[in-house]
Design brief:
The protein is mainly alpha-helical. The protein has one domain: Substrate Binding Domain Of Dnak, Chain:A, Domain 2. The protein has five helices and no strands. Helix 4 packs antiparallel against helix 5. The longest helix has 33 residues.
């Protein structure tokens, strides 16, 4: 049952990502490559997580995916900050404030979403999946900002 639920959530997250514009005419190369690498590694990782036979295997796989997503987020943030410093310095403090606010919102969302699994064996996997999905969603949003005029 947990496996089905996790698959459904992941498919919804990926559908949401695919709905966002992932190709821009002339994106920042470092950010574009970070986001593309993130998308590819998520698809590869999901296959591995679906093949996990035990809860510890699932937790390990989910934790690796979350760490990878967090790394891509840091790379995307660094690239955007560099772009803002050069082209739009007044946007930098606004972006940093928005990222801090997003991080707090994402944390609260995952606490809310996983409330009923708190104290169960599935909690760690569900929390990692939620955080990974939050990063995925935010990365898609940041990518859409590259495409905006």
């Amino acid at each position: 049952m947990i496996r089905f639920f996790l698959r459904a959530l992941v498919l919804l997250a990926l559908t949401g990502l695919n709905a966002c514009a992932l190709a821009s005419p002339e994106p920042d190369d470092s950010l574009a490559s970070a986001l593309e690498g993130f998308h590819e590694s998520i698809e590869d990782r999901l296959t591995n997580c679906f093949d996990a036979q035990t809860l510890p295997d699932m937790n390990q796989c989910r934790n690796e995916g979350e760490r990878r997503a967090e790394t891509y987020m840091r790379e995307a943030e660094a690239s955007l900050k560099t772009n803002f410093k050069v082209g739009e310095p007044k946007l930098l403090p606004l972006f940093e404030r928005a990222q801090r606010a997003w991080l707090e919102q994402a944390k609260a969302e995952c606490e809310y979403e996983t409330y009923y699994s708190l104290g169960t064996e599935a909690y760690d996997a569900e929390m990692s999946l939620c955080r990974e999905r939050q990063y995925l969603s935010r990365l898609a949003y940041l990518r859409s900002q590259l495409d905006a005029p």
